Amino acid sequence: MDASTLYSFSGRAGRMSFALTQIGVFTATYVFTFLIIVLTGAGDETRSGVTLADQVGIMLVASVYYLNMAWISLAAAVRRCHDRGLSGW
């Protein structure tokens, strides 16, 4: 599966392709969230030296990442609906 298929809402996705995509999205999001928690000081920003500008930058990067993962997951779900003969809506 290449990147153009990953982001596409057209076509079909079998059970294995859908499951692997969802597992990959979940795993990548879990690891990314863990890294964000560790890099931002795990809730103790004042002692870890993370400034407000750092927090804003991290949140912008995280927002773009989470939107990207949501798009991939939604595209896989729509392709799976197409494979089952449904419209995707």
Describe the secondary structure blueprint for this structure.
Blueprint: H1 3-7, H2 15-39, H3 45-48, H4 52-83
What is the number of helices?
Answer: 4
Largest sheet: none
Q: Could you tell me the radius of gyration in angstroms?
A: 17 Å
Number of strands: 0
Helix % is: over 70%
Structural class: mainly alpha
Distance between the ends? 23 Å
Shape descriptor: elongated
Low-confidence stretches: none
Mean pLDDT: 84
Tell me the series of helices and strands, N- to C-terminal: HHHH
- Beta-strand share of residues: under 5%
Architecture overview:
The protein is mainly alpha-helical. The chain has helices at residues 3-7, 15-39, 45-48, 52-83. The model has no long low-confidence stretch (mean pLDDT 84).
Features:
mainly alpha
Give a brief outline of the structure.
The chain has 89 residues and is an all-alpha fold. The chain is 74% helix and 0% strand. It is elongated and about 55 Å long.
